[in-house]
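Curious: why these numbers?
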Amino acid sequence: MTKSRRPSRTARALLPGAVAAALLTGCAQGSGSGAAPGPAAAGVPSSPGSGGGPAPGTLLVADFGSGTVTFVDPARGATGSVEVGTAPYGLALGADGRAWVATAEGVAVVDTAARKRLALIPYRTDTGPVTTGEYRGGGMGIALAPDGRRAYVGVNVPGGNGALEVVDTAALRVTDAVPVGRRPFDVDVSEDGTEVYATNHDSFDVTVVAAGTLEARRVEVAPYGTEGGLGSWLKPHYAAVRPSDGRLLLPFEGERLAVVDPRTGRTGIEPMTANTHQHGVAVTADGTLLAVGTGPIDPDADRGPSLTVRTPDGRERVYPLEGPHEDVAVSRDGRTAYVTGGFTRDGYWDGLTVVDLASGGTRRLAAGSRPLGIAVLRGAAGPAAERDGGGRER
């Protein structure tokens, strides 16, 4: 991907200076007065669920570099891996303890209690030869319906538009495929399960799909415009569904937050403060947004990698990170963020950064091989968490 010409710093201003300053009072790089606190707990008990399985707080990451998923103890590191298929990207967790992993070959189904792969469901869409790398064909974003009966996976077709494939989670087969845009980085489902959202990186849009009829419509999301086309860096990557109103939150460049109403197609823009190229996101039950900054596009104008924590009222705290990262999950008590170091481009590393959201302290944890998607496991029983990496737990 080549870098398109970025607008000048002046041209990128969102609001008149006085208004922007008022909105961002107390929002600064790192900690300081007015810095937003860590996200509120998601309201899920931290006690172990019945039925055995992984201990609460165990992490599961998709190893884009090795064809596995890895179980990670946040204190000790990796505790085991399961082969799933070539170049796994996103993953989603069900309340039954099964993980659904989007690989280049198909959707892998993993029993997280027994730590074994149960199935590999082939795609209906022709994605060409199975390969690895940033532009490989196959599954990218993935999410589960709230009732767990369907999994939705965004399938990349190199050189063309992708598809949203619908998996029957009982029959373990693809039942439908809906055309979407190019390179569906992320997939999300509305809180009531009536709509599915594919965030399409290379076509500057989100495809809104009605879960019942599978009718689809395109919503352009391009707060910087579409100049540069496939070569532009200023495109959507990941989205989160805001619990309070169902709007989609898509951060761009640590400067602009696109707030999309999927029902009307209208997009509002709010200012952000990190000034870095942003990828993965997570949202807590109270609407706190976490956004991963991978690093600068223009080293002379942009800041380095970071994690932004943004409260519903727009206050932000920005935690600097060492090196590029891709996606993020939050502990069940809301006190800790886990940021994957895999990154879809060059500069990735094999581990996680653990961020204490109260103190701002960080530590690196070796875990997995180029990890992208991430989720916090509860165990085989009980409700699932709010957000995984590259998908949703339901």
